[in-house]
């Protein structure tokens, strides 16, 4: 749901959206399979500036379609927004080849079926930080490797920014942790409908529009 929401937001802004990776969870009720993890690249004017404050924990309350008993369920998802970084131009980001473990595997779809017979999907593990990046959108192993390296550089750049912000926050005595249970926004679909941003107290009962990408009231409140 979050993936579609952000993709719809990007489309409404006229930005280009490129899938990078998506993995699926175990089958639930009636064989329904949900997305476990997804990453994509949004390219367009002010894309990072508008989306960067979406980073954090998002809380969803609904009647779960993955439960056979159709019980109300609360779930959490972490959103991470990183800037696009050109490894060749960003000299401050150094990625040593010996620090990166490269793994190749078959790209998979819902239910675990292999999309490609060749091992075109790429997983990079940055040993010093433990960051793991996966790319499987392309049928070309080389293109997936280049995309994964670009995403890794973006994550390292974002990590450095967060460390700097943490230092400033420590100096001011205002350090806010992002962790499970400290969600930035809640999406309630049952027993009532409401989307509320915890940081700004902006809220709306028009949940359907929000999940269809109408995020301006929340994003503009944080600018």
Automatic annotation (TrEMBL):
One of its GO terms (cellular component) is cytoplasm. Keywords: Methylation, Protein biosynthesis. Residues 1-79 form the Peptide chain release factor domain. Transmembrane segments: none annotated. GO terms for molecular function: translation release factor activity. It holds the Pfam family RF-1. The keyword Protein biosynthesis applies. The keyword tRNA processing does not apply. Residues 90-199 form the Prokaryotic-type class I peptide chain release factors domain. Belongs to the prokaryotic/mitochondrial release factor family. This is Peptide chain release factor 2.
């Amino acid at each position: 749901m979050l993936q579609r929401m952000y993709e719809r937001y990007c489309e409404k802004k006229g930005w280009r959206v490129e899938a990078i990776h998506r993995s699926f969870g175990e089958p639930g009720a009636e064989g329904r399979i949900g997305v476990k993890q997804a990453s994509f690249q949004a390219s367009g004017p002010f894309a990072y500036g508008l989306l960067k404050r979406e980073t954090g924990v998002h809380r969803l309350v609904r009647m779960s379609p993955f439960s056979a008993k159709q019980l109300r369920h609360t779930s959490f998802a972490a959103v991470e927004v990183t800037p696009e970084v050109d490894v060749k131009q960003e000299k401050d980001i150094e990625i040593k080849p010996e620090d990166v473990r490269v793994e190749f595997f078959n790209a998979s779809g819902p239910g675990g079926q292999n999309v490609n017979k060749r091992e075109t999907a790429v997983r990079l593990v940055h040993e010093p930080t433990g960051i793991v990046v996966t790319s499987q959108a392309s049928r070309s192993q080389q293109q997936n490797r280049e995309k994964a390296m670009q995403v890794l550089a973006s994550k390292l750049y974002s990590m450095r920014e967060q460390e700097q912000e943490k230092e400033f926050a420590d100096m001011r005595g205002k350090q806010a942790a992002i962790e499970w249970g400290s969600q930035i926004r809640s999406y309630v679909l049952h027993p009532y409908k409401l989307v509320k941003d915890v940081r700004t107290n902006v809220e709306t009962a028009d949940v359907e529009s929000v999940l269809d990408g109408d995020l301006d009231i929340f994003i503009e409140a944080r600018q």
